[in-house]
Write a structure and sequence with these properties.
five-stranded antiparallel β-sheet, about 375 residues, alpha+beta, 18 strands, binds flavin mononucleotide
Length: about 375
């Protein structure tokens, strides 16, 4: 299977299955001299850990990361950084049934069609656990970006149709509720909705929003490696993501040019700025110096406890009741995954941009 490598300059290679021995990532291209500890990575991993709330899968994993290479005396050495997280509580017996049928909304059918067989234990490589490698690598990318004054803030904007109220938005609230919503009232309403859906043996989806501040103008390569195109590919590579937009996104289709254009102005510091940010911080695929604003739509968790209609490998129509441990909502656990993929994309293009001009090249080598 190809396709487990991401990035050009800051390159990651993720590996491992949900019920295999471990999952992990190799990071190639991290600049030498970055102070880095397991704790830096663990803080990120803890944000996607299962079993932390009533609304996440009860699978109890400590997800503790071990750095195998690439660090000496507390700093990156410029050599590949290898990170591993052991799977400790895999209960493969829960999944033996799904070897013989196709779960609606999952990749079972397409994997069988493509490869002729699959690792059905916990979804194998298509499981949410595949994202551990991305998050661990994203923690490193985010640390490099933070050192350069670039910060990412990511949260749940909507859960099953319950959306945050911009007038009640408070970023300090994000870590105060298990749904990572920056609005306490919306989080309480969403929790009630999730209780209702749990009782109905059903699930809901939602929207994740990210804001990146401190990003200088000029990041993103024209044509195929535009910043928005690269972010779209990165975020769409996460399981369950069904939509992606920048700034006004799909709403731009409903606006007039006079409403959607951001007027250029001279800012307080005398530099060119924008009066508004409908573009979401990207023009022509290149960052414009305004905050980058993007959103990802996440589908409802496909594994639901109620009876579902499907087909088995013998071509028979059957009714199934999925066993195992599942998230009634994927959105809160995917928040950090989305942030990690954004950090990896931005850092990769930031490094790529170093060779964009002769002036820049001469300044670097002189
Ligand atoms: C962090 C994360 C956790 C997930 N947890 C579950 C889960 O508990 N149960 C489930 O059915 N799907 C879960 N998924 C979604 C499936 O992996 C995904 O929907 C499936 O592989 C089909 O891929 P697609 O939705 O991209 O078509 C999770 C996804 C992510 C990113």
């Amino acid at each position: 299977m190809s396709g487990s490598v991401f990035g050009n300059r800051f390159k990651i290679s993720t590996w491992g299955e949900s019920h295999g021995a471990a999952v992990g990532v190799v990071v190639d291209g991290c600049p030498a001299g970055l102070p880095l500890t397991e704790e830096d990575i663990q803080i990120y991993l803890n944000r996607r850990k299962p079993g932390q709330s009533r609304f996440a899968t009860p699978r109890k994993e400590d997800d503790s990361v071990q750095i195998l290479s690439g660090i000496f005396d507390g700093k990156t050495t410029g050599t590949p950084i290898s990170l591993i997280v052991y799977n400790k509580t895999a209960r493969s017996a829960d999944y033996s049934e799904i070897a013989g049928y196709y779960r609606p909304g999952h990749a079972d059918f397409t994997f069988d069609e493509k490869y002729g067989f699959r690792d059905y234990r916990g979804g194998g490589r298509t499981s949410g656990r595949e994202t551990i490698g991305r998050v661990a690598a994203g923690a490193i990318a985010a640390k490099v970006l933070k050192t350069m004054g670039i910060e990412l803030i990511t949260y749940s904007r909507a859960i099953g149709g319950i959306e945050i109220d911009p007038d009640h938005m408070d970023f300090n609230e994000i870590d105060n509720n298990p749904l990572y919503m920056p609005d306490a009232q919306a989080a309480a309403n969403a929790a009630d909705l999730l209780e209702e859906k749990l009782a109905q043996k059903d699930s809901v989806g939602g929207i994740i929003e990210g804001i990146v501040t401190g990003l200088p103008a000029g990041i993103g390569e024209p044509v195929f490696d535009k910043l928005d195109a690269s972010l779209a590919k990165a975020i769409f590579s996460i399981g369950a993501v069904k939509g992606f937009e920048i700034g006004e996104g799909f709403n731009a289709a409903r606006l007039c040019g006079s409403e959607n254009n951001d007027a250029f102005i001279i800012g307080k510091d005398g530099a060119v700025a924008k009066a508004t940010n409908h573009a979401g911080g990207i023009l022509g695929g290149i960052s414009d110096g305004s905050p980058l604003v993007y959103r990802a739509a996440i589908k409802p968790t496909p594994s639901i406890a109620r009876a579902q209609q499907t087909v088995n490998k013998d071509n028979e129509e059957i009714t199934i009741h999925i066993k195992g441990r599942h998230d009634p909502i994927i959105v809160p656990r995917a928040v950090v995954v989305v942030e990690a993929m954004a950090a990896l994309t931005i850092l990769d293009l930031l490094l790529e941009n170093m060779g964009a001009t002769m002036d820049g090249l001469i300044k670097f080598y002189k």
